[in-house]
Write a structure and sequence with these properties.
Blueprint: E1 2-7, H1 12-20, E2 25-31, H2 35-40, E3 49-50, H3 54-59, E4 65-68, H4 75-84, E5 88-91, H5 99-110, E6 117-119, H6 127-137, E7 144-152, H7 162-165, H8 171-187, E8 193-199, E9 213-219, E10 225-231, E11 239-246, E12 249-253, E13 258-264, E14 267-272, H9 280-283, H10 285-295, H11 305-324, E15 328-329
Parallel strand pairs: 1-2, 1-4, 2-3, 4-5, 5-6, 7-10
Antiparallel strand pairs: 7-11, 8-9, 8-15, 9-10, 11-12, 12-13, 13-14
Helix pairs in contact: 4-5, 6-8, 8-11
Length: about 325
């Protein structure tokens, strides 16, 4: 039985529900900087202790697993402190904001071989994305030469909240990281360089003083190009779009439909795919699998610590590229 503590009760409330409903776990405690949130959840989690600080919940020797869903700028400190206290850690993206922080996490985690670390990069559990990855692995696209992966965030009102109060908010680390991780996971290879640009035109009426839109061009060693966007202020439903272009087949997955184009002789055929919803149990799969990996060391997490480091390395190189206005070689 794993004793679990959850920090941050926005999306963290979903984390808490997963642990509460898993017979292998005991949801022992919750914490949020907004104590009213904790009080409001008392009726939902009547037997759960409310901790007054993140340090208090992390320092509790009876807790085995800390799930971190606080604001982005608190993740690094909470991850580091949890690892130092020998807690398994599930953290919402991003795990941190700067390269120096990532280096510290890697250094400490190297000393904690028996501790599991994962991040809730949920698109790996999306059935549609799983099917696309299978097709790629079966080489049904032929030679893939170009991919587009777009994160339509479309939640402009949230840009004036806690994100605007951070010393630095990154739309790449806060949104596009999902699409970066998705492309690396689908292809099974890492990009070698990145060029990124962005702007805040779409959010200039909000309190956010940082870029709310970014576009990245990733280059792979075989010449494949992937275009990734993090589109914060778009007038569009929240959605993750993807297009895969190969020598034999093309996939288009947009808000309205998903379909393939393939060729028979000189004719291009459209094959419409069945719509599949990204259901709650799929969204929770990253966390439930993480529990599996803690209880059974033979099971690997769907998102390993190396997967986190790879996606973060691309994001940080993209940030460097955007600031320097040049192509940056990605260091892993």
């Amino acid at each position: 039985m794993l004793n679990v503590g959850v920090i941050g009760l926005g999306v963290g409330e979903r984390h808490a529900n997963v642990y509460k409903n898993d017979v292998r776990c005991r949801l022992k405690g919750i914490h949020d900087f907004n104590h009213k949130k904790c009080e409001n959840l008392k009726s939902k989690f009547p037997r759960v202790k409310i901790y007054r600080s993140d340090n208090e919940i992390i320092n509790d020797e009876n807790i085995d697993l800390i799930s971190i869903a606080s604001y982005d700028n608190y993740h690094f400190k909470q991850v580091i402190n949890s690892l130092k206290k020998n807690k398994h850690v599930m953290v919402e993206k991003p795990i941190c904001l700067y390269k120096e922080e990532l280096d510290q996490i890697i250094e400490i985690k190297e000393k904690k071989k028996n501790i599991q670390l994962s991040s809730n990069l949920v698109l790996r559990a999306n059935p549609k994305m799983v099917d696309v990855k299978k097709d790629i692995m079966l080489s049904s696209f032929g030679s893939i030469y170009y991919i587009e992966a777009d994160y339509f965030w479309g939640r402009t009102s949230k840009l004036s909240g806690w994100r605007s109060k951070m010393d630095y908010y990154s739309i790449i680390l806060g949104a596009a990281i999902h699409m970066i991780d998705l492309v690396i996971w689908m292809l099974g290879v890492k990009p070698i360089s990145v060029y990124a640009i962005g702007n805040r035109i779409g959010s200039n009426t909000t309190d956010l003083k940082f870029n709310s839109f970014a576009v990245m061009l990733l280059k792979f060693s075989n010449g494949l190009i992937a275009k990734i966007t993090g589109n914060g202020p778009c007038v569009h439903p929240h959605f993750h779009g993807i297009k895969v272009f190969g020598s034999k087949k093309t996939l288009i997955h947009n808000f309205h439909e998903s379909f393939y184009f393939n060729k028979t002789k000189n004719k291009t055929n459209k094959v419409t795919l069945k719509k599949t919803k990204f259901k709650s149990d799929n969204k929770d799969k990253i966390i439930t699998n993480f529990i599996d990996s803690i209880l059974n060391p033979k099971i690997n997490p769907i998102v390993t610590e190396q997967d986190i480091y790879n996606a973060m390395s691309v994001c940080l190189a993209a940030e460097e590229s955007m600031n320097a206005n040049r192509i940056v070689k990605i260091k892993y």
